[in-house]
Amino acid sequence: MRTRRVDQVGIAGRVSVAAGVGVTLLVGCAGEPSGGGPSWHDPGAAATPAASVTTVSPSPPAELRLVFAGDVHFTGRTLGLLDEPATAFGPIAAQLRDADLTLVNLETAVTDRGSPEPKRYLFRAPDTAYAALRAAGVDAASLANNHALDYGQVGLRDTLAAASAADFPVFGAGRDADAAYAPWLTTVRGTRIAALGMSQVHELADRWKPTDSRPGVAMSHDAGRAVAAVRAARQQADLVIVFMHWGIEGSNCPSGEMTSFAKRLARAGADIVVGTHAHTLLADGWLDDTYVHYGLGNFLWYSTSHSTDSGVLRLTVRGRAVVDNEFLPATVSDTGQPVLVTGRARDRISDRIATAARCSGLAAAPN
Predict the structure, then answer these.
(1) pLDDT above 60 (res 196)
(2) For residues 194 and 10, what is the distance between their CA atoms, to the nearest angstrom?
(3) How many structural domains does the chain have?
(4) Which of 66, 189, 190, 210 is 20 to 30 Å apart from 139, CA to CA?
(5) Cβ 104 vs Cβ 139: under 8 Å
(6) What is the extent of the structural domain holding 209?
(7) Which residues, at least 6 apart from 329, have a Cβ–Cβ distance to it below 8 Å?
(8) Chain-centre distance for alpha carbon 347
(9) At what angle do helices 128-135 and 152-166 cross, to 10 degrees?
(10) pLDDT above 90 covers what percent of the chain?
(11) What is the reported pLDDT for 67?
């Protein structure tokens, strides 16, 4: 198990990092005299030997292990898991902890207030959800999904306030548009990482989008603002991750809307794009140098609706490059907890992903 060092900046709704705000770094120039003395010459002064200059080659970027998992919520059969937050995820937590950085999609409002929105499925959880995420080794969670506002703006404000009180980083939603589109910024072993969350779900999108005075979820439908947020993050970080909520439920092929927006994210500077929402596993690959995984499926899940195929995505990253990708197949058990599988069960899931790869339009390796 690796020892983590994660220095965090920016919890949506608590610390707003507006898109477009840069970070200024003071960097010493190689070859500059260390004394920093005046540049003029006094002809009456005694000659001074020239200072020796040592050229130091920059250190190679650290190799990081990043872990991603899919949709998480605590309702129905998974609500009772919060009676013991420290063990809510079960044995698979060991895979989440064995990383330098772990991200998931938190697909629920964290509130006991608010009014239900006019939609079929409504999810809410108590604030111990954040303790469960932290205990499992999750470092931050995206709220950019179609359930963060299940109990309206009151519920979203509570969700953000609970995250702030727990000192647990969330991104992809905020108290206004600037906060919703702002990246979560963190430094891991010297590498500056920006993580953004966005939703491409159209249901109630106009009602749920953030404004200058209204909380909401970052939406890819506002393509200009979404792309600008990625470009701004590119200026602030060494590695840019976009966690998307998109896809057609039950389909393991990406839609045209997904593939076209993935290309825009890649052109804007995203290094890694991962997705959830379809409730089934999709495939991964590359758009030029950008790594894309279109769908991670359900992870900690309340029912047997749709597919119970699940898993953990492990990426090894050096600088901006994904140099290794591995998917650990799992299944959602009767408790709602994902459990790693072996043998025929693992082979069946791997075969389904291989089938999904045929319609992904992604390359098997970076260009």
Answers:
(1) yes
(2) 10
(3) 1
(4) 210
(5) no
(6) 9-15+62-357
(7) 309, 310, 311, 340, 341, 345, 346, 349, 350
(8) 28
(9) 50
(10) 82
(11) 99
Q: Model pTM?
A: 0.86
User: Which of these, 118, 323, 316, 298, lies nearest to 203 by C-alpha position?
Assistant: 118
Residue 333 has pLDDT above 50, yes or no: yes
Q: Residue 302 is encoded by which pair of tokens?
A: 């309340």
Q: Which of 277, 135, 262 is nearest to 203 (CA)?
A: 277
Task: Please report the DSSP string for 237-278 in residue order.
Answer: -SEEEEEEE-S-TT-SS--HHHHHHHHHHHHHT-SEEEEE-S
CB 188 within 8 A of CB 6: yes
What mean pLDDT is reported for the chain?
A: 89
Q: H-helix or E-strand containing 194?
A: strand 191-199
CA distance 237 to 244: 19
Residue 35 main-chain phi, psi, to 5 deg: -75, -30
Looking from the CA of 12 toward its CB, the CA atoms found within 13 Å total 37
Q: What is the spatial distance between Cα 327 and Cα 337, in angstroms, rounded to a whole number?
A: 17
Cβ proximity of 141 and 133 under 8 Å: yes
Question: Which residue is it, tokens 């000659």?
Answer: 47
Residue 47 lies in a domain: no
- What is the average pLDDT across 118-140? 98
- Cα–Cα distance for residue pair 65/317, rounded to 1 Å: 6
Q: Is 137 in contact with 102 (CB distance < 8 Å)? A: yes
pLDDT category of residue 304 using cuts at 50, 70 and 90: confident
Name 141's bridge partners.
Answer: 104, 170
Output the domain CATH number for residue 168. Answer: 3.60.21.10
In a domain, 162, yes or no: yes
* Cα separation, 166 vs 29, whole angstroms: 41
pLDDT band (50, 70, 90) for residue 349: very high
Residue 39 domain-assigned? no
Residue that has been written with the tokens 């330098």 in this structure: 100
Residue 261 within any structural domain of the chain: yes
In terms of C-beta distances under 8 Å and separation of at least 24 residues, what long-range contacts does 187-191 make, across chains too? 187/6, 187/7, 188/4, 188/5, 188/6, 188/7, 188/62, 188/64, 188/100, 188/101, 189/5, 189/62, 189/64, 189/100, 190/61, 190/62, 191/61, 191/62, 191/64, 191/238, 191/239, 191/319
> CA-CA distance, 298 to 280, in Å (whole number)?
7
